[in-house]
Amino acid sequence: MEYPHTKxxxxxxATAAAVDVVRDGVLFSVxxxxxLAWPVYPADGSMARSDASSRAAxxxxxxxxxxxxxxxxxxxxELARQTFARYPAKLRHAILLTDGKNQHESPEQxxxxxxxxxxxxxxxxxxxxxxxxxxxxxxxxxxxxxSVDIVPDPSGLAADFAAMMQSAMGKQVADVALRxxxxxxxxxxxxxxxxxxxxxLTGRRAPSxxxxxxxxxxxxxxxxxxxxxxxxxxxxxxxxxxxxxxxxSLVAQSPSGADVLGQGLVRAIWTDDEALSTKINPRVAHYTxxxxxxxxxxxxxxxxxxxxxxxxxxxxxxxxxxxxxxGNEDTAKLLAKVVDVVDVETGTVRLKKQxxxxxxxxxxxxxxxxxxxxx
Length: 375
Description:
By secondary structure, the protein is α+β, with helices and mostly antiparallel strands. The protein is built from eleven helices and 17 strands. The protein has helices at 6-21, 52-62, 73-85, 107-117, 134-143, 157-170, 274-277, 282-305, 309-326, 329-335, 357-365, and strands at 27-28, 30-33, 37-41, 48-49, 93-98, 122-128, 148-151, 173-181, 186-195, 199-200, 206-209, 212-220, 227-234, 242-254, 257-269, 339-343, 348-351. The strands form six sheets. Strands 11-12-8-14-15 form a five-stranded antiparallel sheet, with no helix packed on it. It has a three-stranded parallel sheet with strand order 5-6-7. Strand 14 (242-254) and strand 15 (257-269) form a beta hairpin. Helix 1 packs parallel to helix 6. The protein is globular. The termini are far apart. The mean pLDDT is 95.
């Protein structure tokens, strides 16, 4: 945070802006981190109950922060975990800000810290400038059910922090999960969130009963809508037969158990009509393309970084075509800063010779953002 000198000033302003949004009565704290982590407010490592007095005290404590030291994100997360663990609240949210790579601890130490935090709190991650690692923050945000983004200009931090905290204040339903039950002759192949972002939840299944498993989705705001893509494999049956392939429920944990917020049934029907068996649901096709779009961007950028221009051109060209087909205009604009588009329909592109680091990182961090399919 030392260079440019405005960076630490904007980080202080952003933290103060987030503190100002915390509603009266909500517990909060501020943690600082370099190659170590320590509580800024309250200084004893507890959490303060938000009111005009505590918010003013927090702003004063934050104003004294200075830049310097290294980066050990695992230690920051561990202190946040310890702080949260002292309180029984179910809705827990953190904002993580860094301007550098995780250089002062091993990848194994960071991974261990992230595992310890899973399920305890959500975490939105932000990288300011261009000297941090997208993959590191994406791994953290995915595990902790948060978001990741770049803030290339430090002057944009305050508005971003205030918006993230405002969104956190709107969450009212904690520990929401997608519960998928299948009969004995069916197997869940994958469970993915596909809107508003692509997140693969398949490996996060927790058994919740005979032939059922829960996939965590974090906290929700009232009226919030998300889309999920579930793949189920069933054993063969005869033409004309029908079976219940899965029951998908949205459940929220409560003191009395799991409250079912909504439910849908997935049926499998066997047919020899090719017009039916080869037809792909338009919404499934849309989101399959969106998932491929995210993968193509990430693979293309990695190939470009490794100097493999042929693979980078092919992958990013495919991404251009998919963005055009799905109407993902925001992603198309980001791609246009990395490649010169020759033919949008076929995905024919040329890699730009000079690309700003911020533009490349913005494309990477926002590659998983999708556009909703029309119902």
